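Help needed: design a sequence for this.
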């Protein structure tokens, strides 16, 4: 009988949990380590000490996130996600016009025509804007053909996208998915986003929002790993990685040493850099070039943070569950008390989100 490979996943965020669950389900001997006292990484929730409310940052899925959806379904979370086919876009009021709302939703037409009907009626885009968008999407009719050496901003210019089409469609989508401006987004990835959301199938653009706090949500992922005999060890910070003569790995934490055949680092990039830089190898000369090249690439990494603004009102402020906010510093509105089915007498719990908020 073959001994299962011992694999240590460092980091119990969403990526680490997903990797660990997949490996444990194949019979691997999996241990997950995280320095935090909870799983989920930055997708976590906590009881606010002054408000007597459980708060978290907004976290969404879209229909094309097939790996994450499969993980959630396997973890028994299918009924803890509320799916929305219809999405609302709001333009701010002006001195001469009230707030303008328009919606986009799939029709019974097959992909890639499923959004055509509602797209044609979008009031947030003019006819010239819609023609520009159609011209851009036509490039992806046969798949997400995008180049890594072209930015999304260059693609806007090359396909003659209008300023309003950029402001009211492309840029919000890039911020929501790639969390950065068009100048910094590669078309290799932007093209995949546009194709998967609009053209690939009729469910790729659906929006899924967890209906329970995030720490409770991703705790189910930890339970799934344990169900496959995996271990989750929290408050356990890896301090050093040392390759052994048999090429297995020694992981040193503050409390114990672990031996692993393989390691997955599912960490923020600063922690990954630190561990790779201090890693002790059996043949450092052979691997030093690869390590130096990797660290040089990672040295260019920067953060592109989200900012969440949490608000509580003593009454229902709108019957919308969520909306895109156009021509605004704040890009999204999530009515969390409605998404989570709170009683109306609890008022409105609202989250506003700013993406790519380096400034």
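Sure. Designed sequence:
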């Amino acid at each position: 009988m073959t001994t299962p490979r011992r694999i240590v996943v460092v980091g119990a965020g969403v990526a680490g949990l997903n990797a660990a669950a997949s490996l444990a389900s194949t019979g691997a001997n999996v241990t997950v380590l995280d320095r935090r006292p909870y799983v989920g990484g930055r997708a976590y929730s906590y009881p606010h000490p002054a408000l007597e409310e459980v708060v978290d940052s907004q976290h969404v899925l879209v229909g094309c996130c097939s790996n994450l959806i499969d993980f959630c379904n396997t973890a028994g979370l299918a009924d803890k996600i509320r799916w929305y086919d219809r999405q609302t876009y709001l333009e701010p009021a002006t001195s001469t016009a009230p707030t303008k709302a328009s919606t986009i939703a799939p029709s019974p037409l097959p992909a890639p025509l499923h959004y055509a009907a509602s797209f044609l009626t979008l009031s947030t885009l003019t006819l010239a804007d819609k023609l520009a968008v159609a011209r851009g999407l036509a490039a992806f009719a046969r798949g997400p053909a995008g180049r890594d050496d072209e930015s999304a901003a260059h693609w806007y210019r090359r396909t003659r996208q209008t300023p309003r089409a950029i402001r009211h469609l492309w840029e919000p989508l890039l911020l929501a998915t790639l969390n950065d401006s068009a100048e910094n987004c590669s078309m290799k990835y932007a093209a995949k986003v546009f194709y998967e959301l609009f053209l690939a199938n009729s469910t790729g653009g659906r929006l899924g929002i967890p209906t329970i706090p995030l720490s409770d949500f991703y705790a189910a992922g930890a339970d799934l790993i344990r169900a496959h005999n995996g271990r989750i060890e929290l408050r356990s910070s890896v301090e050093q990685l040392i390759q052994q003569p048999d090429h297995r790995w020694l992981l040193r934490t503050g409390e114990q040493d672990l031996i692993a055949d393989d390691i997955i680092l599912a960490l923020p990039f600063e922690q990954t850099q630190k561990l790779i830089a201090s890693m002790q190898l059996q043949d450092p000369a052979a691997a030093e070039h690869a390590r130096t090249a990797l660290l040089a690439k990672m040295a260019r990494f920067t953060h592109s943070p989200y900012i969440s603004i949490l608000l509580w009102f003593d009454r229902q402020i709108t019957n919308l569950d969520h909306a895109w906010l156009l021509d605004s510093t704040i890009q999204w509105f999530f009515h969390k008390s409605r998404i989570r089915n709170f009683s109306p007498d609890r008022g409105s719990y609202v989250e506003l989100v700013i993406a790519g908020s380096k400034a």
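The domain at 6-63+69-77+212-267 is CATH 3.50.50.60 (FAD/NAD(P)-binding domain).
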